[in-house]
Amino acid sequence: IAPDSFKESLTAEEVAQAIKRGFEQSITDVECLLCPVGDGGEGTVDAIQHSLELEKKWQEVTGPFGLNEAMRYFQKDNRAFFEVADLVGLGKIPQEKRDPLHIQTCGIGELIRHLIDFGMKEVYIGVGGTASNDGGIGIAAGLGYRFYDKKGEELTVCGQALLEFDSVFKAELYRIPDDVQIRILADVESPLCGHQGATYTFGKQKGLDPALFETVDLAIQGFYEKFSPSTLSLKGAGAGGGIAAGLCAFAEANIVSGIDTCLDLIDFDKQVEDADLVIVGEGRLDSQSFAGKAPMGVAKRTPNGVPVIAICGSLANDLPPLPFENIQAVFSILEKSEPLEDSLKNASLYLEHTAANIGRLLNMRNH
């Protein structure tokens, strides 16, 4: 059972547990192996933590509005894992404060410094679900860059600073040691700029006024033309409102496939060897799910001949005909027409019912 989280409703592990309960109700001798997964979006590190038994820790960093905040990360040996959404996620920012140009992300750079100073050699970062759109300038600030306007006044570093900065001071730059690997778990391939980029694709859902898209996009482009032109052609640099770009340009990070890295870390290929059936799932299955999202990633790594079934919150009407990518059947868990908040609240129960029904069908086949 290898589902992703259901956004705003259940973690990947809670989804997996609910599906397991359903199967146990309807198939007497069923053996369920829980493998919650994530693709770089919110909840990825929680999913990995389930399989790797990571230790949870906290570190004080600069929060989204400039005040110090404790941010969590996970650790095992000399590997560390964290999600930027734990500091600047949409879920952390109240509706009335959602202004992606005024949210600070320098705390992410500060956390990286802390982890490296404490001997971490591999750092895995989930960058999905952020409320910021600063093109990664906050990462530069967290690693020691200082930005000034035309009058020589130091700027608070957030997306707005891109529109106002005139000069840069590189006083105490933090250098990433050669023996440290920073990997960005990405679930999107969006470049940093342009109509497919961070601002145009995700700006609106973060509360950015579409009238500002062009101005902000050009400001980000101008910034990288000055500091790191190669970042502008990187696939996935637009993830996290451009945090991925900042990590690549200033912290020498590499963008990797979130789902494939997650499956490698939890040793999925070994776990799936004896499976008769694989269950995948996410909150909404749509054509976007084909570009690096969890259900397809799991299905692609499932051995030939092992059927894959998707159990999802809702299904979009742009899905191709079945079977696709080894997925033989897809089920929506929605049982009745009701307001979305009720469906989110009842998701655990609906998952259980759907899994139990699938189990009954499988029983019929065996008899």
In short:
The protein is of the alpha/beta class and 367 residues long. It contains 13 helices and 13 strands.
Brief descriptors of the model:
13 strands; alpha/beta; 6-stranded mixed β-sheet; 35% helix; single chain; 367 residues; 3-stranded parallel β-sheet
Q: What level of helicity do the residues show?
A: 25-40%
Estimate the mean pLDDT confidence. 94
Strand order across the largest sheet: 1-2-3-4-7-8
Q: What is the end-to-end distance?
A: 24 Å
Beta content comes to 15-25%
The biggest sheet, with number of strands, parallel, antiparallel or mixed sense and barrel status, is: 6 strands, mixed
**Tertiary shape:** elongated
- Summarize the helix and strand pattern as letters: HHEEEHHEHEHEEHHHEHHEEHEEEH
Secondary structure: number of strands:
13
Q: Measured on Cα atoms, how large is the radius of gyration?
A: 21 Å
Number of helices: 13
Q: Note poorly predicted spans.
A: none
Oligomerization category of the chains in this entry: single chain
Helix/strand-derived class? alpha/beta
Please provide a written account of the structure.
- By secondary structure, the chain is of the alpha/beta class.
- It has helices at 12-26, 44-52, 85-88, 106-117, 137-142, 159-164, 198-202, 213-227, 243-251, 258-265, 268-271, 294-301, 340-366, and strands spanning 55-62, 68-76, 79-83, 122-126, 146-148, 167-169, 181-186, 254-257, 278-280, 284-285, 308-312, 314-315, 327-332.
- The protein has a six-stranded mixed β-sheet, with helices on both faces.
- Helix 1 crosses helix 13.
- The longest helix is centred in the C-terminal third of the chain and has 27 residues, at 340-366.
- It starts with 11 loop residues before the first helix and ends with a helix.
- The mean pLDDT is 94.
